[in-house]
Amino acid sequence: MTEPLILTEIHGDGERRTALIRINRPKQLNALNDALMVEMGQALIAFDRDDAIGCIVITGNEKAFAAGADIAAMAKYDYMHVHQTEYITRNWETLLQVRKPVIAAVAGFALGGGCELAMMCDFIIAADNAKFGQPEIKLGVIPGAGGTQRLPRAVGKSKTMDLVLTGRMMDATEAERAGLVSRIVAADKLIDEALSAAAIICGLSGPSVALAKACVNKSFEGGLRDGIDYERRIFHSLFATEDQKEGMDAFLSKRAPQFKQR
Ligand code: CAA
Fold first, then answer.
1. Which atom of ligand 1 is nearest to the CA of 109?
2. What is the rounded distance in angstroms from the CA atom of residue 123 to the CA atom of residue 218?
3. How far is the C-alpha of 122 from the C-alpha of 216, rounded, in Å?
4. Which residues are catalytic?
5. Does the Cβ of 60 fall within 6 Å of ligand 1?
6. What stretch of H or E contains 205?
7. Which of 32, 44, 71, 203 has the maximum number of C-beta atoms within 10 A of its C-beta?
8. What are the pLDDT digits (tens) for 93-117?
9. Is 111 touching ligand 1 by the criterion CB < 6 Å?
10. How far is it, in rounded angstroms, from Cα 182 to Cα 72?
11. What is the dihedral of CA 136, 137, 142, 147, to 10 degrees?
């Protein structure tokens, strides 16, 4: 029997729980092939639609989050194939349709498409053994899953050029200093840390969490004025929700809010 390409688990005991997706090609350092990305996309969409899920975590194993797109598969592709099948766009970018928060819990290698997959997530929690890089230049190509666009927004032009043009790796400390990752934890605490961040998110108002994510993405992906106008419209619209009334009333009454997810 062939091993499943991803493993999924549900964690938590509240009304809304966390879905954990583990990338599962350990022998290939979790290199990301087409079939895996299709499966991951399907799992992500199913969790996004499931009212019992409040947050999603994507992880690999202690050695590799993912060492990139599958080079053995790509080596056979030609221009017409990648163009006609919309390689990357077709299945990797399903992740970008997810409205719930997606946390990348990264241990070991996050290289090439692995680093890009982590950057498509909403934030990255890194184990102290994490290594990030965009080594595609060494294969005679360039990052192809958004790396040349998302990395400079996260770490600035100079460090991006350094990483993309030399193909070198950076460790977790450098990645945190540069702003690529939100926190570093000991490798054996990585999943616990990601699940406790996710549990906090699960306990909040789902609609405001999804809209907060959309607003931050508007800033990350677009210009300042558009982003502020978008944020203001969303902010105003949240005053139509029951959760806004409840959240503010609970604060003033010095009690914990009981969010109704509407
Ligand atoms: N694709 C396919 N197989 C991969 C892989 C990848 N991206 N990365 C590692 N593997 C395989 C190796 O071929 C090897 O397989 P075999 O045992 O069958 O030989 C196995 O995983 C273990 O790898 P190594 O023996 O190389 O392990 P190492 O510890 O010596 O080195 C490493 C680790 C530095 C991460 C090295 O494996 C490496 O450089 N991998 C490639 C990294 C890379 O170039 N990533 C970018 C891919 S291109 C891309 O992602 C395009 C895009 O933007 C979408």
1. 35
2. 15
3. 9
4. 69, 113, 116, 136
5. no
6. none
7. 32
8. 999 999 999 999 999 999 999 999 9
9. yes
10. 32
11. 60
